[in-house]
Amino acid sequence: MKALPMLTSCCLALGLLASAAQAADAVSAAKAAQLTPIGSVYLQGVPGGPQQVDALIARQAAAKGAGYYRINSVQESQSKSSWHATATLYR
């Protein structure tokens, strides 16, 4: 039974590595000005913290064919249990 939590942790870590390999990259405002915007992402109710928001935006950007993204806003909900964010996607 002790092996189950360890196996679960390893599977989660491998899943995060696999999704990170497919994620888009964050860019600065200066770099974004040189790229072509292709859309946006709006997230609501993301549990965790800013790092989880960033990772989710990166995955969604890649899923929509964007190579880059710039986060416009990140805000903690009033209940402080989730986050909201907006980002612009670029090629």
UniProtKB/TrEMBL annotation:
Signal sequence segment: 1-23
Alphabetized InterPro entries for the sequence: BhsA/McbA_stress_biofilm_assoc, Dodecin-like, YdgH-like_sf, YdgH/BhsA/McbA-like_dom
UniProt KW keywords: Signal
Domain YdgH/BhsA/McbA-like: 35-91
Gene3D superfamilies xrefs: Flavin-binding protein dodecin
Coiled coil: none
Protein name: YdgH/BhsA/McbA-like domain-containing protein
Annotated source species: Chimaeribacter californicus
UniProt entry tagged with the keyword Lyase: no
